[in-house]
Amino acid sequence: MLARALAPRREPAWRLAAAAGLVLAVAGGAWAVVTVQRLSIERSQLAARVSALEDTLSLIRSPATRVVQIPVSTSGRVGAVTIFADTASHRWLVTCHGLSPNQPGQAYQIWFITEQGMKSAAVMSMDSPHPMVLALDMPGGGARVMGAAMSIEPMPGSPQPKGPMVFHLNL
Questions:
Q1: Looking at residue 125, what is its pLDDT?
Q2: Are 88 and 27 in a shared domain?
Q3: Stretch 104-117: mean pLDDT
Q4: How many CA atoms does the CB half-sphere of 35 hold within 13 Å?
Q5: Could you tell me where the beta strands, DSSP code E, fall in the chain?
Q6: Residue that finishes a domain, picked among 36, 60, 84
Q7: In whole angstroms, what is the distance from residue 104 CA to residue 134 CA?
Q8: Can you give the residue range of the structural domain that contains 71?
Q9: Per-residue confidence (pLDDT) for residue 6, from 0 to 100
Q10: Same domain for 49 and 112?
Q11: Is the same domain home to 131 and 73?
Q12: Domain check: are 116 and 159 in the same one?
């Protein structure tokens, strides 16, 4: 009897299999939860991007949209600024291609030319040569937009243009 008590006992195989199955189930469940959360975040990001692209496309395709392309030259680089001006939604889509990256502490500033003077539309810090796209709301308060301009200003922008003009266009 003593020999039997001192002899090593073998656990039944089903207990070992059950423990392994439980470990796999917990690990699989944790992986599934993490994956579902990650995919949910990615889905939300993609939905926001699709919504923004649909908004951009609707502005470009609107029958009330006027397209103006302005050739520009910055630091010897030839590029273009294209304005899609939607008079129905009072919004602009502005694309900038081929602009030189800004010097440190500088930015491109887009201006609406109105009856009351120049109104800042956007400040763009270009730190790479890649194109930039901006959606802009036209100024409110009955200010009629008569044109657009772009200047190079110190960061974080200026209340009125002071730096060199990239373009100045009456529409």
A1: 87
A2: no
A3: 93
A4: 6
A5: 65-74, 77-86, 91-97, 106-114, 117-124, 132-137, 145-154, 165-170
A6: 60
A7: 21
A8: 65-170
A9: 60
A10: no
A11: yes
A12: yes
